[in-house]
Amino acid sequence: MERLGCFLAGYLLGCILTAELLAYYKTGKSARTMGSGNPGTANMTRLFGKRAGALVLCGDVMKTAAACLLCRLAFFPQLGRIAVLYAGIGAACGHNFPFWNGFRGGKGVAVTCTFLVLYSPMWGTASCLAGLGLVFLTGYLAVGATAIPIVFLPFAASLSGWEAGLLVLAAAGMMAARNFGSFRRIAAGSEKKAGFLHRFRR
Asked: Contact, 95 vs 15, CB < 8 A?
């Protein structure tokens, strides 16, 4: 029951889509009707600028951190560090599949990075940097995003055993599924590369 409680707490907080709140505030429309249609940091940055993107990123990080830390320290401390993963997976599910928005949400990149770093600051940060490196190498956000939980997987299993490994594997599967359309476009040669990379390659 404690594990389910962590997941549900994470899900409810994850359902708060910062990008949707920002989009409605600025235009009165859903983020899913603008730009790429993804209610996430990258889309909001392209549409409204760096400050808007930073606000969305901060909101997604904060809701995930709140879920993970509340479950770890206040609600279910008896679970130990594994509470962070259950709450984090719940937050990712809430972000990706919010009940109030027809289960249509974002891709959960910032959410996933946040709970991996909270679970293991060193290996979580290393995995995020590896994903960022792949974005620079390939030019595709989907490649880097999907790589992050995959790179983290052996560390999770070594730190906390099979249960942590299965949870991170689930996170990797969800990330791959959310980016499936991007991978299809990459294979077809129609996916756009990350725009911010041009500034670093000039």
From this structure: yes
Q: What angle do CA 118, 196, 65 make, to 5 degrees?
A: 15
Do residues 76 and 25 lie in contact, with contact meaning Cβ atoms separated by under 8 Å?
no
Report yes or no on whether pTM surpasses 0.85: yes
What was the pLDDT predicted at 38? 85
Contacts of 117 (CB under 8 A, 6+ apart): 124, 125, 128
Among 78, 175, 82, residue whose Cα is nearest residue 131? 175
**pLDDT tens-digit profile of 34-90?**
888 888 888 898 889 999 999 999 999 999 999 999 999 999 999 999 999 999 999
Least Cα distance to 107 among 47, 175, 31 occurs for: 175
C-alpha distances in Å from residue 128, one per residue of 29, 123, 133, 170, 193: 32, 9, 9, 17, 19
